[in-house]
Amino acid sequence: MIELPEGSWWDWDIVAWNPGRLCLGAGHDISYAHGLELVFSDPVFVTCPAVFQDPVFRAPTPDELLFIARQVGETPPVLIAFEADAGGSSLASGLVAAGQLDIVQGTVFRYWRENLAVGERLAPWVEPPA
After folding, report:
1. What is the number of domains present in the chain?
2. Closest CA relative to residue 31, chosen from 123, 130, 94
């Protein structure tokens, strides 16, 4: 089970995803910045909406555990399951299996900004104006 730090983590999206890392960003309004990241190292299985709201994290079901073990050949160190509003008529399910999970707090701006304070940074896609 996952425990999030205190905060308003209603709005979520995929911030970055490559073979070695999946990063989910969260905040009360991620239009301009987010304040929480779930960073999954060595993800081996991911099913997750690109954008979602108000996730409810839970322990994986026995069927999900069996499914992941069959897909990847073992039960990975990290297995996170959740349901969330992804804009459809019913809740969307998410399942992430990975080698490690780090929970990172700090303001991550989604637009160009100079003079960042300590603990602030820019999202990976943000570039300075030309």
Report:
1. 1
2. 123
